[in-house]
Amino acid sequence: MAIARSFRDLNVYRKARETAQEIFGLSREFPPEERYSLTDQIRRSSRAVKAMIAEAWGRRRYKAVFVNKLDEALGEATETQSWLDDARDAKYLSIEQFNTLDSNCISIGQMLSRMIDRADDFCKHLQRQIIEALRA
Questions:
Q1: Can you tell me the mean pLDDT for 71-100?
Q2: Which domains are seen in the chain, by residue range?
Q3: Which of 44, 70, 79, 130 is deepest in the core (most CB within 10 A)?
């Protein structure tokens, strides 16, 4: 496995970005009366997942902050699943669309959980870079 040099190199970020884009596209078809409720909320939470991953990456100097931001991303992914339930219940999404997006959220959650469990691996790499830079 190659060392990630940027949050954009992380598979979980890529999957979260792809899922947010898919949700954005599908939510364009939601009724206008959902604009300020379901549409805004599902877009916000799905986009927040990738934003929190990026922020965690930038803050990995401190393991506790890194883990906290990943945990927030996990919470946003779960919130997105709740909004997906509402969209499915209202028949704004087909069962196939729902299943694909829900499966993506589950996968993202599993990847985030593994990153949290392996936080030392992500934070140690940055610490080595900092030490090397100070020595130069």
A1: 98
A2: 7-135 (1.20.1440.60)
A3: 70
Residue that the structure tokens 């939601």 belong to: 30
pLDDT score at 28:
96
How far is residue 106's CA from residue 77's CA, in Å, rounded to a whole number?
8
The answer to whether the CB of 76 falls within 8 A of the CB of 48 is yes
Residue 78 binned pLDDT confidence (cut-offs 50, 70, 90)? very high
SS3 29: coil
Higher-confidence position of 132 and 107: 107
Query: How far apart, in whole angstroms, are the C-alpha atoms of residue 45 and residue 78?
Result: 9
Q: Is residue 113 classed as helix, strand or coil in its secondary structure?
A: helix
On the question of pLDDT at 133 being above 80, the answer is: no
Sign of CA dihedral 22, 44, 58, 115: negative
Between 11-27 and 63-89, two packed helices, what is the crossing angle to 10 degrees? 30
Residue of 3, 6, 122, 24 whose CA lies nearest to 67? 122
3 vs 66: which has the higher pLDDT: 66
